[in-house]
Amino acid sequence: MNREDIVSDNISYRYPVSIKGVLFVGDKVVLLKNERDEWELPGGKLEPGERPEDCVVREIEEELGVIATTAELLDNWVYQIREDVLVYIVTFGCPVLSDARVTHSPEHKAVGLFALEDVPALNMPAGYKTSISTWAQKLGMLE
Which of these, 35, 33, 73, lies nearest to 55 by C-alpha position? Predict the structure, then answer.
């Protein structure tokens, strides 16, 4: 690699990374309402040196008060949250390990538990809907 390659790579566009989890409490998917009035999966920004699997487990506990784990990488894509902001989204299927009551942190407007048949009508990025469907299929919740 020569110097010109290094310099051009350093000016490449970089995306913030957000790690999200699809989790079900019973037969309902857990979603949070954000400041854009969209429903979204729990999760958040990847911290330096943090593994994506550890990030989503930490974020789920912080945002919902629920202990979960990661089982499987479901999807990844770039989402434009505003005209000038793109975020790289990574989603994992996350089995719940605790029976704690789902709550939500002050960073979200609301928490909701939704039946799978209600998800298509929600104001939510298509990528999240795809991840929810993928995880539900892997869990045998969809035919």
Answer: 73
Give the CA-trace dihedral at 46, 75, 118, 39, to 10 degrees.
Answer: 20
- Which amino acid is located at 88 in the chain? Y
- 29 to 4, 63, 125: CA distances (angstroms): 48, 15, 15
What is the spatial distance between Cα 1 and Cα 126, in angstroms, rounded to a whole number? 39
What pTM was estimated for this model as a whole?
0.87
Q: Integer distance in angstroms from the first to the last C-alpha of the chain?
A: 50
Burial 8-21 (b: 16+ CB within 10 A, else e): eeeeeeeeebbbbb
Which residue spans within 6-142 are E strands per DSSP? 17-22, 24-25, 28-33, 39-40, 43-45, 72-82, 85-93, 110-115
Strand, helix or coil for residue 19: strand
Each residue's pLDDT tens digit, 68-93: 999 999 999 999 988 888 999 999 99
Task: Kindly tell me if the per-residue pLDDT of 133 is higher than 70.
Answer: yes
CB-CB contact of 23 with 96 (8 Å): yes
Phi and psi at residue 96, to the nearest 5°: -85, 135
